[in-house]
Amino acid sequence: MGVTRRLALPAVSAGLALLMLAPLLGRGFVLSYDMVFAPRQSLVPDAFGLGSSLARSVPADAVAALATAVLPGDIVQKLVLVLSVFFAAYGAGRLVPTESLGIRLVAATGYAWTAYFAERLFIGHWPLLITYACLPWIVKAGLKLREQPKALAHLVLACAPAMLTPPGGVLAAATAVVAAGPRKAWQTLSIALLLNLPWLVPTLAHPGGSLSDPAGVAAFSARPESWGPAILSVLGLGGIWNGDVVPDSRSGPIAPVLILVTLVIAMLGLKTLAQRWGVAPARSLVLLGVCGVLLASLATLPLGEPVLTWAMSHVPGAGLLRDAQKWVAWLALPIALGFALAVETVARRAKGIVVVAAVFPLIVMPDLAFAGWGRLETVHYPEDWQAVHDVLAADDRPGDVLALPLSTFRVFRWNDLRTQLDPAPRALPKTVLIDDTLRVGTRVISGEDTRLDRIRQAKSARELAVEGVGWILVEHGTPGRVDPGLLADATRVWSGPWLTLYRTPAMGAVPSVSWTGVLLANGVALTTIMAALLCSMLPMRRLSPGRISLPQKE
Fold first, then answer.
1. Given a cut of 60, is residue 519 above it in pLDDT?
2. Which one, 48, 173, 498, 541, has the greatest CB density within 10 A?
3. Three-state DSSP class for 35?
């Protein structure tokens, strides 16, 4: 019986992953919005933030490149998605302070099966899914650190996967600081700084600065998903700016009512959480969740949009606040834990309520199952991509690749006309330049790549060559116009139904990059993780599962 109980939580967590992702587990790639994996990703300078664009996907791209050197890219993608669901559910189930298996399952489903996970899955923000899965483990390690100094190593290991992008790094860092408490703040802040160096260093050194277009504030602000206001959708862990990735069940007339009911139940259970953890850590976690709601909703609140607009124009790095709904991840754990503990209280009188509560998230949002009822599917890259990859890999001449038509996103027939990020920067073995201008509805948000500003003004392949462009890649079957003048004096190298590759004449100087700072930053972060891994192997006093012994005063 004991073995069955121990296996029940991981089994249910695996079952949730299978229910959510089963149609995607065959061979092939899921290419949706920002979720772009390639068969083999290369360690180009952009993977370390050394290109002319901001380090938005650093060190995620470098990690993906290393992973695809060992496993095929589609297998890496499947592992990322499945493990994100599994560890989100399993972590929340392990974290809730109870001995009841049923209540652990309530916390597991309540944390993994959420609008936040659905919307970030559909929009393709896989590094944020990893971060979301890490948060319960970060809290667990932070709580242990309050009384066990050796738990610092566990906190480092819990944080490391979460810090693949700047937003993930901030989400993880704040969670670690709150979970470990103010007495350990110097340790947690130091860890956060060291682990975030891989993206901090290239961001600070970016030649164009790190200011963002203020137009992004309105374009990426939280959106109402039903008849309630935007802040109500955010309180339900949704409200993402892109309505196309919102599950249909979130727009139903009863959805706001269900959100309010869930919040009320969760608030009732937070008293029990404070009794078992101690007031200080429980209160800190809830306050962090409130901060996440305020940040996510700020642009929709009075004076919020002018404040954010000013920050984008004057404060370096304020672009992190763009797409602000991502910060509501901090609220997910207080809701899941509070809801589960409130159910535990009621279950003393009504045993069957536990089963209903465990499946409640699945009932209210059934369209997350089976990859959103077919919203996501796997596809295969056309052979053109491998052919162009081989041509570029065999040519050691300098020069970057310019992808045309100029657009950040593509819509290919071979991907069932889904909107997807241009795969060229990840699918090809050289630095690929894509337009970083974003179009959201009728709004145009300027990018931060000053090199692209000069490239847009070029009228010929020779002028492109002066900017260090050695190849032009024309992608067919996707909206956008290619200026024939750019190709007139270029040499066609390879052509297929989906791609045509050209070589520019009279190559100019390729922009040089300095690897010293970024290699040092990555080395420091990696050394920190390895040291934590070694320290974690040392014996440490164990706490009983689900119970955190904490000092009541702090």
1. yes
2. 48
3. strand
Tokens 């959201």 sit on residue: 440
Q: Does residue 420 sit in helix, strand or coil?
A: strand
Q: Facing residues of 419 across strands?
A: 411
Rounded CA separation 462/486 (Å) = 8
Q: Are 461 and 504 in contact (CB under 8 A)?
A: yes
Model confidence pLDDT, tens digit, residues 40-81:
999 999 999 988 888 889 999 999 999 999 999 999 999 999
**Nearest C-alpha neighbor of 406 from the set 463, 339, 457, 352:** 457
Q: State which H helix or E strand residue 128 sits in.
A: helix 126-145
Torsion (CA) 119, 34, 414, 27 in degrees, nearest 10? -80
Instruction: Please enumerate in sequence order all residues whose Cβ is within 8 A of that of 489, keeping only pairs 6 or more positions apart, or say none.
Output: 460, 461, 462, 505
Q: How far apart are CA 504 and CA 470, in angstroms?
A: 5
CA 465 to chain centre: 35
Are 373 and 257 in contact by the 8 Å Cβ rule? The answer is: no
Please, are residues 120 and 129 in contact by the beta-carbon 8 Å criterion? Answer: yes
C-alpha to C-alpha distance for 532 and 534, rounded to whole angstroms:
5
Measuring CA to CA, how many Å separate 26 from each of 29, 65, 77, 245, 424?
9, 21, 11, 23, 23
Question: In 22-72, where does DSSP find H-type helix?
Answer: 60-68
DSSP letter at 446 equals -
CA dist., res. 80 & res. 208, Å (int): 33
Least Cα distance to 387 among 435, 421, 429, 420 occurs for 429
Q: Are strands 419-421 and 409-411 parallel, antiparallel or unpaired?
A: antiparallel
Give residue 321's pLDDT: 85
Helix locations, 473-514, DSSP H? 484-487
Which residues are bridge partners to 471 per DSSP? 401, 503
Contacts of 410 (CB under 8 A, 6+ apart): 419, 420, 421, 422, 423, 475, 478
The one-letter code for the residue type at 454 is R
Dist. CA 242–CA 257, nearest whole Å = 22
State the Cα–Cα distance between residues 382 and 373, nearest whole angstrom.
25
Instruction: Give the H/E segment covering residue 502.
Output: strand 499-503
Does this model's pTM top 0.90? My answer is: yes
Residue corresponding to tokens 């596809």: 379
Cβ atoms of 74 and 377 within 8 Å: the answer is: no
Q: Is the pLDDT of residue 283 over 90?
A: yes
* Beta carbons of 469 and 399 less than 8 angstroms apart: yes
For 204-258, write each residue's pLDDT tens digit: 888 767 778 888 888 899 999 999 999 999 999 999 999 999 999 999 999 999 9
DSSP assignment letter at 542? P
* Distance of alpha carbon 554 from alpha carbon 257, whole angstroms: 38
